[in-house]
Design goal:
alpha+beta; 9-stranded mixed beta barrel; about 15% helix; globular
Length: about 290
Amino acid sequence: MTSARLVRKVGFLVLVAATLSSGRASAQTDFSGEWAGTLHEDLPHRNDALGGGPEIGDYTGLPINQAARLKADSWDASINSLPERQTITAPAAYWARGGGNMRISKVVDEATQRLNAFMIYRAGAGGSTTRMLWMDGRAHPPEYAAHTWQGFSTGTWEGRMLTVQTTHIKAGWIQRNGVPASDRATLTEHIVRHGDCLTIISVVQDPVYLEEPLMRSTSWVLAMNQQLNAVQNQIVDEIAGRPDGYVPHHLPGTNDQLKVFADRFDLPFAATRGGKETTYPEYQLTIKELRARR
């Protein structure tokens, strides 16, 4: 952790989760079932139909560094129309925020009936994916092992709360407007079930693009009669006439959309640029100072 304030912030979230999941140290929770996303958290960013998705240049609340800022400024949404990117689903660093409903199934040893893993199938507008949370004590692969979109995840019980550590994640994103996550990012998740509600507190750490760990909570509700089907994808040429090898992008300093978000909400441009200092309540005082200078 990089500051006393960050320690307090992580500690509070985990304390809440531990309180909700309080019980004997040996207790475990059955997370299996069909779950529907609530979209209570960051609705405009997560639902294109209701909120339009995150706006270009909106990095508020993200503890990103200058490298991440430069990469996000250079991002062009048209990159998702490239054939090799059309079927990419939410990578692990953004997995819980990606929308869509999910099924959690227990994978048990046939002979002993001991829990080996939780298997999570999630289906959304962008496609479907299956993620394994290994519970059998296996070690993570060596550093040179292949990285995947969902990474390699192992879980341990802390009372009735499941803590999941994920490594070996492909480079992806933490927000769908170009804010990146590197292939050195790791993910810690605290999964809590409270009745028919399921909450995941996720902590992304990335030495390449983040100044501090990024913490978010995401919730689902039990959906007993939910039917999840496979999502069919078809790769097509969405935009004709592009030269071979072209990758949509903005060269540094050429993206003229970066200030639109700030202007729309009457925010100082600096307040939309992210950074660890912008994630704390006292940054409101800085915003007042920036406005006074205009």
